[in-house]
Specification:
The structure holds three protein chains of three kinds. Chain A is α/β, with parallel strands linked by helices. Chain A is built from eleven helices and ten strands. In chain A, about 50% of the residues are buried. In chain C, the strands form two sheets. A two-stranded antiparallel sheet of chain C has the order 1-2. The radius of gyration of chain C is 27 Å and the shape is flat. Chain C contains twelve helices and four strands. The chains are: A alpha/beta, B mainly alpha, C mainly alpha.
């Protein structure tokens, strides 16, 4: 994308033309390569309207309204306990698995109500995949881990090719191609997580959700996975929860900042979105003081 | 978490500390040493008595039964003449019974365990009733299962008659709680993250259970089944009530006719006054113990070889 | 793009839907089958109760409940028959008593040693030995009692001892339940937090003191649970008493006398030639009901204690 185009985009997004890019604190460089994929599409993948999640009647997140765009990496950041994980699990109906959880409000997926009466969560999860915080490979071989999804959902095609393709996309093929029959538990933590990513893309989803995918990994593995995310966004839409601000700044296109709000008597606490905007703006020129306090490290 | 456990633990700690301090302060050193040594000696004596009992039992069975330990045990039929009597029908009968038990207990036990661990909401009263029942059934005396067989299976509603099939059902009901409890533990040991990973890929609940949870818990389930089978193989009392007590000289059939089982035959020979029968009985016990030894060694090998470590 | 198709943006670009492709009846059928397997347990209990209750009610039509529960003469085979159940109840209790007197010190001793003294060599032998003991069929233990304990031990100690006596079966039963007491008590003792022990040791307490004054009281509910469970097993045991204790109902706790336990009575009558439907036949179920109720109560007490010991350390 040329400088010209970028300026046009900035103008469209309301940033004053020619505004200098200021990093607000040392170390948060809004990375050059956190480019918006495929021309910063504005096609919406998810539209959330006034979403609220309750556990046993107690709210966990409230008044969540924002859109997730196609081929973007959308980051959810905020302090502990602000409900980021709860929120991201709404996108693939994983909260259905928790009996005490109720989801209210509207979540549209490509214009369709994700929680509509005719929607089958199993189908939804084939389209909206998830990578978890702690790598959770199956107690099977590397090959069978990747092949499990396609086999189970009945994908047709040459399984060897499907597995290889997925492992290539997960940037793991070269490291494991000679030992596909080995038990997945023999891989390192970073490799296991990439295996989980490969497993996820093997079923050809539309969206990949990542719930703090690097928090259990060392910095080198983290770097590899961040690079992988940026490659993947060409083909998928990615939503990532991270408590690592720098990571959000490095990889994401859009960032949502959530905070914890206390209810009456301090027993109730829930999360809400303070600001949702292009990552660059969130980290260099946020609209809300609370956002600025968080990204500059004034509050935890 | 309430304060209760903390208080209880603190209460115990304080009581222990008090008793210890008092004893330490008031006790005299020399007496202490003697008391302590005596105590540990007593403990070892206790252990030795238990071990002695076990060893005596095993050795006595072997020594007493030695004269009769030969292939004839397996090939000679039951008889009222101790010089030609053997355990052939009894062994065949036991094998048939056990085969039936395995066929019944594996699907029913795994099925119940999967239901309780994966589908049942443990707060619902009916699920708690099921769990309570299983817990109680595990402690019901085996002869009561015999009464169940007598009143319900052999006669009563099922009215199958005194056949081996009825014996199998009775034994299967007896050992089913063992399988259920072992299978539940094995299934519970599979971490939730595995299930989440599978569901997140678009697998259904049953697909997840069938393709991830059950394969991962196979080792624990198999161990439980073998334990149950061992128990069933050695059981006598219920079989006495459902018709295995008859004296059988023809090879038994499963769905008709008389049958017997190894422990029952051992019992019958043991109640005869002649010493020759006692010797035969002992030999039968040796065979019984050997079979159990093989089964349990197999279970241990299985567990060590295939155990899933999380 | 058709309204209801969600085009995957992945490489294959296959349009896919959010609605279920099929109603998936299979899942519902499977749920039903699995629930059925679980409900079998309730069915079994119900069947046991029905099998017991029916003839028992018939029995109490002929024999007053008071006569049964409090009568001291048990002779259903005689003319005229007598249906006072106390002799065989006492028979069961007698054997249980002698068994427990043997099993409790041994079981607890083993448990304390394994938990507090834990010499690794000893542990390697004792743990497997206890597991082997737990797996020995009761007919083998009964045989051992009859053909070894009685002639070679008891008759040597008391030459007037009969061939069948309560003490012999008691010792056999004691041997049978030692593993129960030992393993559950050991679990309970090991569950006592290390901090409690360490505090005591730090004050200079000896191992014996820690074991008896700190660990034992702390593990008490688990220990009690194990003993109650052992009693329940002893009460319900058949083959050992049939082989070694005798078949004459005898209202006594004297260990050197021959008695008949409830379970032995049931086994003897059921394998004998008794016509169905007679009062004598129904004694099987009446005694069975009594046995069932006794073990049920004992099991529930034991479960309560297990729950208590688990709760303290959670």
């Amino acid at each position: 994308m040329t400088e010209e185009q970028r300026r046009t985009e900035e103008a469209g997004a309301g940033v004053p033309v020619g505004a200098e890019r200021r990093g607000l604190s040392q170390g948060i460089a809004v990375a050059e390569h956190a480019r918006p994929g495929r021309g910063l599409t504005r096609e919406k993948v998810f539209e959330l309207e006034d979403v609220e999640v309750n556990y046993d009647g107690k709210p966990a997140v409230r008044e969540i309204t924002f859109d997730v765009f196609k081929h973007n990496i959308t980051a959810l950041i905020g302090p502990s306990g602000c409900g980021k994980s709860t929120l991201i699990r709404c996108f693939n109906r994983m909260n259905d698995l928790i009996p005490s959880a109720t989801v209210e409000g509207r979540i549209l997926y490509h214009g369709e109500d994700l929680y509509g009466p005719n929607v089958d969560p199993v189908q939804a999860r084939k389209l909206i995949g998830m990578v978890f915080q702690k790598p959770n490979p199956f107690p099977k071989s590397i090959y069978d881990n990747v092949a499990f999804g396609p086999r189970t959902i009945g994908m047709k095609g040459n399984m060897d090719e499907i597995v290889e393709g997925a492992l290539r996309r997960g940037a793991l093929w070269d490291e494991v191609k000679d030992r596909l029959g080995d038990n997945a538990y023999g891989l390192s933590g970073g490799q296991q997580q990439r295996l989980c990513i490969a497993r996820c893309v093997a079923v050809q989803p539309d969206v990949i959700l990542m719930d703090e995918p690097c928090s259990a990994l060392d910095p080198i593995s983290t770097g590899k996975i961040e690079d992988l995310m940026i490659e993947l966004k060409d083909d998928y839409s990615i939503v990532i929860v991270t408590h690592n601000m720098q990571q959000a700044a490095r990889v994401s296109d859009m960032t949502a900042f959530l905070i914890v709000e206390l209810g009456a008597g301090e027993q109730n606490r829930w999360g809400r979105i303070v600001e949702y905007d292009e990552t660059e703006k969130i980290f260099t020129n946020p609209s809300d003081q609370r956002t600025e306090d968080y990204v500059t490290g004034k509050v935890g | 978490m309430s304060d209760e456990p903390r208080t209880e633990r603190a209460r115990l700690a304080v009581a222990g500390a008090r008793a210890t301090t008092a004893a330490v302060v008031s006790g005299r050193p020399r007496k202490d040493v003697i008391k302590n040594t005596l105590f540990s000696v007593l403990l070892l004596v206790a252990i030795l008595l238990a071990l002695a009992g076990l060893v005596a039992l095993l050795v006595q069975a072997f020594v007493k039964g030695r004269p009769d330990l030969s292939v004839g045990l397996f090939t000679d039929s039951g008889s009222s003449d101790p010089t030609i009597a053997g355990f052939k029908q009894a062994i065949l009968g036991s094998l048939m019974l056990i085969a039936g038990v395995i066929v019944m207990v594996v699907p029913l036990g795994i099925g119940a365990a999967v239901y309780l661990e994966e589908y049942a909401n443990s707060e619902r009263w009916w699920n708690r009733l099921i769990e309570l029942n299983i817990q109680n059934l595990a402690g019901v005396p085996s002869i009561i299962y015999g009464i169940l067989g007598l009143g319900f299976i052999v006669r009563g509603p099922l009215d199958l008659g005194f056949i081996a099939f009825a014996g199998s059902i009775t034994l299967a009901l007896l050992v089913l709680p063992i399988v259920i409890i072992a299978a539940r533990e094995a299934i519970r040991a599979v971490p939730p993250s595995i299930r989440e990973g599978s569901l997140a890929l678009g697998a259904t609940k049953w697909q997840t259970i069938r393709r991830q949870v059950l394969p991962a818990s196979t080792s624990g389930i198999a161990t439980g089944v073998i334990l149950a089978v061992s128990r069933a193989f050695g059981e006598t009392a219920p079989l006495l009530l459902v018709g295995a007590a008859t004296f059988v000289t023809f090879n038994p059939e499963y769905f008709s006719g008389d049958y017997t089982a190894l422990p029952v035959q051992i019992f019958q020979y043991a109640t005869r006054p002649q010493d020759e029968f006692r010797i035969l009985s002992a030999a039968g016990i040796v065979v019984l113990l050997l079979v159990l030894l093989v089964m349990n060694s197999f279970a241990i090998w299985l567990r060590n070889r295939y155990e899933q470590r999380w | 793009m058709e309204a209801r198709d969600i085009a995957a943006s992945g490489p294959a670009g296959i349009p896919r839907r959010l609605e279920a492709a099929s109603p998936r009846y299979g899942e519902k059928v499977i749920f039903g089958l699995l629930a059925g397997c679980a409900i079998l347990s309730v069915v079994t209990t119900t069947a046991i109760v029905i099998a017991l209750i029916g003839p028992t009610i018939g029995f109490f039509g002929d024999v007053p409940v008071g006569d049964f529960l409090f009568g001291t003469e048990w002779s259903p085979q005689f003319e005229p028959p007598s249906f006072g159940v106390l002799p065989i109840v006492v028979g069961t209790l007698s054997v249980t008593l002698w068994g427990m007197l043997f099993a409790i010190p041994i079981g607890l001793g083993a448990a304390i040693y394994l938990s507090e003294y834990a010499h690794p060599g000893v542990r390697k032998i004792v743990k497997p030995a206890l597991e082997v003991l737990a797996g020995i069929p009761t007919v083998a233990i009964g045989f051992f009692a009859l053909t070894f304990i009685t002639p070679d031990i008891l008759q040597k100690l008391a030459t007037s001892a009969p061939i069948f006596l309560a003490l012999s079966a008691g010792l056999g039963i004691g041997l049978m339940v030692v593993p129960i007491i030992a393993s559950i008590s050991e679990d309970a003792m090991r569950a006592v937090p290390a901090g409690l022990r360490e505090g005591a040791y730090a004050m200079g307490a000896t191992r014996m003191r820690v074991a008896t004054r700190v660990v034992f009281p702390a593990a008490l509910s688990g220990i009690v649970a194990s003993v109650v469970l052992a009693i329940s097993r002893a009460v319900g045991e058949t083959m050992i008493v049939v082989l070694a204790a005798g078949s004459t109902p005898n209202l006594t706790f004297d260990p050197f006398q021959s008695i008949q336990a409830m379970t032995a009575y049931i086994a003897t009558i059921a394998t004998g030639e008794v016509a169905q439907g007679t009062t004598k036949y129904d004694t099987i179920f009446a005694v069975g009901t009594l046995l069932f109720v006794m073990t049920l109560i004992l099991n529930m007490i034991s479960i309560r204690f297990v729950r208590r010991f688990r709760q303290v350390y959670e």
